[in-house]
Each structure stands twice: as structure tokens, then as C-alpha cells.
């Protein structure tokens, strides 16, 4: 799968997942234009991408393409908190 196809497929899957799981009382849904790629890499026949959306729901998505099996896996994560730690001297 080439990069453009992988990116489009990832965005499509994130849109489908988000719209299926979004709070129905929000009366909103997203399109691929609302999804952006934070990071992506391709190694041999495999690809991985981290994506997020313009929704302020704290979610991010990791999609992995297994080129041997021709399968894509989607992991959905929610950021609970961001804690800062000082490096010890």
C-alpha cells in the first residue's frame, strides 16, 4: 500500500470510528478534512501513523498496516493527563 492510499484509509477509518463513538447529544460529525496526521512512517511493507481530529475530545489514534497480512489495526487512545517532571541534576 503506498503512502497516499494509507493516509486516506487511515483518515477514513478515524472518521468512521469517531462518528460512531461521538456523543450523540453533540449533534456533530467529522469528515476526513477534520483528521490530521501527527506522525507517520513506513518500513518495508509496513506503515504506522498517529492521527488526531479537530474535536476537543482528547482522543488520538494509532493505525498500523501489516503488509504481510494486508490488515490495518486501529488503536484509540484518550489522553488523561500531562504531568511534568524535572530532570534530576
Which features characterize this protein?
flat; 1 helix; single chain; about 90 residues; 4-stranded antiparallel beta sheet; alpha+beta; about 35% strand
Task: Report on this structure.
This protein is an alpha+beta fold and 89 residues long. The chain has one domain (3-78). The protein is 21% helix and 37% strand. A four-stranded antiparallel β-sheet has the order 1-2-3-4, with helices on one face.
Separation of termini?
Answer: 47 Å
- Helicity, as a percent range: 10-25%
Which blocks of ≥5 consecutive residues have pLDDT under 50? none
Number of helices: 1
Going across the biggest sheet, name each strand in turn: 1-2-3-4
Strand portion, in percent? 35-45%
Radius of gyration, in angstroms, nearest whole number: 15 Å
Q: Report the count of strand segments.
A: 4
Instruction: Profile the largest sheet.
Output: 4 strands, antiparallel
Return the average pLDDT rounded to an integer: 94
Global shape: flat
Estimate nothing, just give the exact number of structural domains.
Answer: 1
Structural class: alpha+beta
Helix and strand string, N-terminal first? Answer: HEEEE
Amino acid at each position: 500500500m503506498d503512502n497516499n492510499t494509507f493516509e486516506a484509509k487511515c483518515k477514513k477509518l478515524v472518521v468512521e470510528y469517531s462518528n460512531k463513538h461521538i456523543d450523540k447529544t453533540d449533534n456533530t460529525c467529522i469528515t476526513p478534512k477534520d483528521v490530521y496526521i501527527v506522525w507517520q512512517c513506513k518500513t518495508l511493507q509496513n506503515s504506522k501513523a498517529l492521527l488526531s481530529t479537530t474535536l476537543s475530545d482528547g482522543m488520538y489514534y494509532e493505525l498500523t498496516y501489516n503488509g504481510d497480512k494486508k490488515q490495518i489495526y486501529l488503536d484509540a487512545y484518550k489522553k488523561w493527563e500531562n504531568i511534568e517532571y524535572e530532570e534530576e541534576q
